[in-house]
Amino acid sequence: MENKLLGYVRVSTREQKEDRQIIALTEYGVPRTAIFSDKISGKDFERRNYKRMLKKLKKGNILVVKSIDRLGRNYEEIIEQWRYITKDIGADIVILDIPILNTNSHKDLIGTLVSDIVLQLLSFVAQNERENIRQRQAEGIAAARLRGVHLGRKKQFYADNYIDIFKRYRCRYITFDEAKQLIGCCECTFYRMLSELRKSKKVP
Question: Which residues have a catalytic role annotated?
Answer without folding.
Answer: 12
